Amino acid sequence: MVTGHLQDIMRYAGLGDRLAQAMEYLQQTDFTAMTPGKYDVDGDNIFAIVNEFTTKPYDACEPETHRKYIDIQFMVSGKERFGWAPLLEQKPLMPYSDEQDLLLYQPENLNFLNLSAGMFIIFYPTDIHMPEICVNEPELVKKVVMKIQASAG
């Protein structure tokens, strides 16, 4: 897991060519007027999902991991709390969904970070993460989730 402000994201470009390409896309794109949906960057290798949603109480959220994709989650507007823990010996609550690239877990032993507009967080397949948690009370947020195929990072 890596987190910071968008103005500093290129410090992490050395983490991989696909990650660097996704980071450049984040820096060069104005997401404020973009409508929610999926945006192609490099086919299945890199794409962006623009989301608008209302954050939820902790007990309405679920920790998750992905096997195929690394996430860069970038806050366009609003505030969101994220739970995080390293994936070690935790047992998933369900079988892996290849179609959704998703495993869900119990919300145990998580650490929490609050992100506001202009901030990003990177989650690898070895990171359990619990997004969409409200900071103080539910609020409307706009967020971009960059999906980067993990096989060549």
UniProtKB/TrEMBL annotation:
Domain of life: Bacteria
Coiled coil, from the record: none
Protein's name in the database: DUF386 domain-containing protein
NCBIfam families: YhcH/YjgK/YiaL family protein (TIGR00022)
Residues of the signal peptide: none
PANTHER family registered for this protein in UniProt: EVOLVED BETA-GALACTOSIDASE SUBUNIT BETA, PROTEIN YIAL
Record lineage: Bacteria, Pseudomonadati, Bacteroidota, Chitinophagia, Chitinophagales
GO cellular component: cytosol
Organism in which the protein naturally occurs: Taibaiella soli
